[in-house]
Automatic annotation (TrEMBL):
Pathway: Cell wall biogenesis; peptidoglycan biosynthesis. It catalyses: Preferential cleavage: (Ac)2-L-Lys-D-Ala-|-D-Ala. Also transpeptidation of peptidyl-alanyl moieties that are N-acyl substituents of D-alanine. PANTHER family: PEPTIDOGLYCAN D,D-TRANSPEPTIDASE, PEPTIDOGLYCAN D,D-TRANSPEPTIDASE FTSI. Catalyzes cross-linking of the peptidoglycan cell wall at the division septum. Residues 68-215 form the Penicillin-binding protein dimerisation domain. Belongs to the transpeptidase family. FtsI subfamily. It comes from Vogesella aquatica. Its EC number is 3.4.16.4. This is Peptidoglycan D,D-transpeptidase FtsI.
Amino acid sequence: MSRVYTPPMRQHLKQPMRLAPGRVTMVLVLLGGLLLALLARAVYLQVVQQDFLQNQGDARFRRTLLLEANRGVIADRNGEPLAISTPVQSIWASPEDMSPVPAAKLAALSRLLEMPVAELQEKFADKKREFVYLKRQISPQLAQQVMALEIPGVAKQQEYRRYYPAGEMLSHVIGFTGVDGKGQEGLELTREKMLAGKHGSRTVLKDRRGHIVEDLAVIEPPRDGQTLTLSIDKRIQYLAYRELSAAMVANKAKAGGVVVLDAQTGEVLALANTPSYNPNNRAVLEPEMRRNRAVVDMFEPGSTMKPFPVSMVLDAGRITPNTVFDTRPYTIGPASVRDTHPNPSLTVTGIIQKSSNVGSSKIAAMFSPEDMWTFYRKSGFGQSPQSGFPGESAGRLRDWQGWRPIEQATMSFGYGVTVSLVQLARAYTIFTHDGALLPLSFTKLAAANPGRPVIRPETAKKMRDMMITVTEEGGTAVRAQVLGYHVGGKSGTARKLVGGRYAADKHIGLFVGFAPATNPRLIVAVMIDEPGAGFYYGGTVAGPAFSNIMAGSLRILGVEPDAPSNNTLIPEHKISDVREET
């Protein structure tokens, strides 16, 4: 029987190697020192450097995006849009988040944005910039093509572009906004706070490729701007602009303006100027095109001022419409006062109808300079009409203490005092609204604002009756007649002051009137600056435009005629011009 071999058992196991006590202590101290260093570094970073590190992280990955508010709509009194905002896209980039853009993608981006490659490279090169616009206000379709290139660091954001459906016919009233959406002119500027609303914001975390990872705060939504409803009637505005433009061409004039007011509320139903501009395309925009002449330009109003001294003296009971005055030429010191179309004598009604300088100066002389100055001020002259437009003119009315007798005379027929067309149209509300001067309003009113009494209601009625004769046969503005309606008003023709002297060949032709004259609904003021077609009298150059604007406006508003329906206008070949030059 065989045996299995069993090796002998070891007598002694090998003893483990032991470290010297000094080495153990050294290792423990080293590890403890490293731990303390790490803890100190952590404390330093988390406490001392916390703000710095937080800012660095935010600068690289945290973004606050602007959520743009939609600008408020501007509408006419009937709700027709006059200014609206349409959504567009803007392309921007964050150079610090961008890697070198492949040549093919850079060329495609250049083609889509119509920008030179060198310009794009220049924008991308500044790595310190977090935000730079590449192209603003492009179509959503084009923006989508740009984003399809998937270039890291290039993004889009929604903005709004202003569009003006009425174009050039309302540009001086509405104005326009800049590329940043802020008002630059007109009501866009003066009503900026109301229209702009309030932008919102969204704080997000982005990765290094510019993609949004998450929202870091509650989104603050934008608050859209309010709707601004104007007193303007788009239909009347179109009519006014069309007729003013036609009058400019027919008279070969330098410029012109027209204002249409509601005679009982002071609301501005239309305001137009020529030349004008298209606010949707301002590539070529000369300063003369932007000038809101009806509001900012000052001029001497000529004979359109005559109803005011007449109404002042009439209201005091010193004269009646039938009072007769000697209207032959006379002198005041070294100066003479005369009429272009002389008459030996005229009633007060005749002075208005024939536009007599002699008669109006003699009527004005019945009161002191101080009384006349006070009356002019009460009628709104020499002070801002407070229309709310930037740069509006207050006109010029010198202090009465400096007046000489001849100056009081000339101020009675519109020389030596300057006004704006808006100011002049507003002043005529004292004749249409029972003697009260109405405040102007470019916004639609729920109820008329109270006027400031200037003359008695019965005086206003007498003035209306006298001013009707201006458009009847023998008056200075027969061409201002309107079929089916009584029309009252006053023409004016003034020489322009050039280089300190009144030019013989430069005039302003004016007509300001109202209808139906027996119960006025509208006031229309027309100004033609430097007519050059051979005629310059206000009744001749401004009267026809007034007639067309007034006739069309009354039809639009459905105003009942106050004259016999079978009345006829005086044919052109039978009109005998009554010349006036004030």
